[in-house]
Amino acid sequence: xxxxxxxxxxxxxxxxxxxxxxxxxxxxxxxxxxxxxxxxxxxxxxxxxxxxxxxxxxxxxxxxxxxxxxxxxxxxxxxxxxxxxxxxxxxxxxxxxxxxxxxxxxxxxxxxxxxxxxxxxxxxxxxxxxxxxxxxxxxxxxxxxxxxxxxxxxxxxxxxxxxxxxxxxxxxxxxxxxxxxxxxxxxxxxxxxxxxxxxxxxxxxxxxxxxxxxxxxxxxxxxxxxxxxxxxxxxxxxxxxxxxxxxxxxxxxx
Length: 254
Description:
Blueprint: E1 4-13, E2 16-22, H1 27-33, E3 40-42, E4 47-51, H2 54-65, E5 69-72, H3 82-90, H4 95-107, H5 111-115, E6 122-123, E7 128-131, E8 140-143, H6 146-158, H7 176-190, H8 198-211, H9 216-223, H10 228-231
Parallel strand pairs: 1-5
Antiparallel strand pairs: 1-2, 2-4, 3-4, 6-7, 7-8
């Protein structure tokens, strides 16, 4: 049995989301992974690669396990497909829970940003969301998808807000612990095959924008990132005017 490790890294190849298989050269490892039809060699990048998906990652792990090869996927952010996001959000019966998680995905928000939003930050007529004093002390504007505008309108009618857009039962901002529990239950109910967290929705949003052809610099602006290098992380799963950007939330079947 071998004692080797293959590390998976994000890779953008031919405009598609791929995973680069990195390992110290070993002829046995090379021949073993080539047994999988999904594994290919890139002359351009000088590496073996395969499409990015949780299902194929699991298949690679099982295949390599038989030869004593460990597959390390920790360098890849968890990303849900659009169908998985739709299944997760569609299974939420509680309007507040559905609106909160939908907004996190539809705008690529950090959960801390979503929980500190105030009603005045919503500009539904303009279809813009103002995220103030966010991470790095940088305010920004985020486009609102057509479907999320409708959902927010329903939510504000059902839950008149006093101070924060999302409030707890006793007032004040909705807690991170409660939001995390909502996400955990939603993932379980949807039967998702990956360990998805609240931040996974933000990763998935950025990924789906890339897949739809949105320019990287616009995604950087929407996410509120100060360095293009950090935004380049999302090119592993895919690779104008702000208000013209179409959110992947509008494409979900809910």
